Amino acid sequence: MKTLRPQKEKVSAATILFVEGDKKKTLLATKALGPLAGAVLTAWSLVEASKIIKGQPDISLLITQMIMDGEDTGPELVREFRSKFKKGRILLVASHPDKARALIKKSCRMGDVLTSPYSLSSLIIKTDNLLRT
Predict the structure, then answer these.
(1) Three-state SS letters, 38-96
(2) What does the alpha-carbon distance between residue 81 and residue 118 come to, in Å, rounded to a whole number?
(3) Which letter does DSSP use for residue 132 in this model?
(4) Which of 23, 28, 49, 90 lies at a CB distance of 3.0 to 4.6 Å from 43, suitable for a disulfide?
(5) CA distance 62 to 123
(6) What is this structure's pTM?
(7) Would you say 11 and 99 are in contact if contact means Cβ atoms under 8 Å apart?
(8) Is the dihedral angle over the CA atoms 81, 84, 90, 96 positive or is it negative?
(9) What is residue 96's predicted lDDT score, i.e. its pLDDT?
(10) What is the DSSP letter of 37?
(11) Between the CA of residue 129 and those of 5, 23, 51, 56, 73, what are the distances in Å?
(12) Based on the number of CB atoms within 10 Å of its own CB, is 47 exposed (0-12), middle (13-18) or buried (19 or more)?
């Protein structure tokens, strides 16, 4: 297996939607992901993420948790994202990654899973890899 390392140059055309219920984590991730993409959009709930998906002409990568606020929101958001952005990538954050891997395999195959809790460096590396595939 090859080592995953972020490239130095920005994937300038990319737009990332980062969905996370914790505002502090969202601010840290947005700052960390900013150098990789042209834009990083954020949402703190399924409803907010859904509005962004409906209103954006293009999103290159969805990063979302499998479970937010005690609800299994990942599959619903993945379906909505996939129906609009057929070529978009998905990064699912999960504390139990098996279900997330099965969802990626079933729904898009253009995605990956990030086990929670995660480090900013692992988020950056996985994001960079997905944007470049």
Answers:
(1) EEEEEECCHHHHHHHHHHCCCCCEEEEECCECCECCHHHHHHHHHHHCCCCEEEEEECC
(2) 23
(3) T
(4) 49
(5) 12
(6) 0.84
(7) no
(8) positive
(9) 76
(10) E
(11) 8, 25, 26, 23, 24
(12) exposed
Residues of the chain with pLDDT under 50: 1-5
Structure tokens at 94: 């999960």
Residue labelled with tokens 């090859």: 2
Q: Which residues 6+ apart lie within 8 Å of 72 measured at CB? A: 66
Return the amino acid letter for 91.
L
